[in-house]
């Protein structure tokens, strides 16, 4: 999946770029409306994440231009413009979803996944591996014996990206970014604590340490 991120704030853009790439997406990031227009004309994308307050060309103008070309590209507006009339205008102009800043990183990822599923006509995903099953949309999980397991929100944040891509190694920093927002303090052993809890609930073999690199769910 290739995404176009249009965000002029350097700190937010860098964080979202790292987050989305850690999720396995190919991401191009541009910081003004003119560059975004050029990218959309030059490259096919699966999703556009669009800020509205952009230099050189406003995000609403960019969105209207995109829809005038009859492009069916899913668009997620992510902006600080929070007035009701602005949200209505964005959706009426052709956005598929509207997310207000500041937002939780997990919520942005969930909305990205939902828009991509909708665009592809896919049903709600269920990830199954080593006998463990999870349904992210409803936050249901089952162990290898088929018993329902209750997971905390932060256990979900660690488990879902690992179980969705067996064999992919995620670093401790990448998992920390899934646990916390931009301004939250990160305890030194947070990832280890949640992985320990997941191993107790779902089996010690489910999540492996890759020494000096990070963690993974092994391929069967």
TrEMBL record:
Cited Gene3D superfamilies: 3.40.50.2300, 6.10.250.690, Winged helix-like DNA-binding domain superfamily/Winged helix DNA-binding domain
Residue intervals of the OmpR/PhoB-type domain: 124-219
Domain of life: Bacteria
Entry-linked Pfam families: Response_reg (PF00072), Trans_reg_C (PF00486)
One term under GO cellular component: cytosol
Gene Ontology terms for molecular function: phosphorelay response regulator activity; transcription cis-regulatory region binding
Domain Response regulatory intervals: 2-116
Gene Ontology BP annotations: regulation of DNA-templated transcription
Name of the protein this chain belongs to: Two-component system OmpR family response regulator
Organism, as annotated: Roseateles oligotrophus
């Amino acid at each position: 999946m290739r995404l176009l991120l249009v965000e002029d704030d350097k700190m937010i853009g860098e964080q979202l770029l790292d987050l989305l790439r850690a999720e396995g997406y190919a991401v191009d990031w541009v910081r003004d409306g003119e560059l975004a227009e050029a990218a959309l004309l030059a490259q096919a994308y699966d999703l556009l994440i669009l800020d509205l307050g952009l230099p050189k060309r406003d995000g609403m103008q960019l969105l209207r231009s995109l829809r005038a070309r009859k492009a069916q590209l899913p668009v997620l507006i992510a902006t600080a413009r929070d007035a009701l009339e602005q949200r209505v205008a964005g959706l009426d102009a052709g956005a598929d979803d509207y997310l207000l800043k500041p937002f939780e990183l997990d919520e942005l990822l969930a909305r990205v996944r939902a828009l991509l599923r909708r665009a592809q006509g896919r049903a709600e995903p269920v990830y199954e591996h080593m006998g463990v099953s999870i349904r992210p949309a409803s936050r249901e999980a089952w162990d290898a014996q088929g018993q329902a397991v209750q997971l905390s929100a932060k256990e979900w944040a660690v488990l879902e990206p690992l179980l969705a891509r067996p064999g992919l190694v995620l670093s401790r920093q990448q998992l920390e970014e899934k646990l916390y927002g931009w301004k939250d303090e990160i305890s030194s052993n947070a990832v280890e604590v949640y992985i320990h809890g997941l191993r107790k609930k779902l089996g010690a073999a489910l999540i492996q340490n890759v020494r000096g690199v990070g963690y993974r769910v092994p391929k069967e």
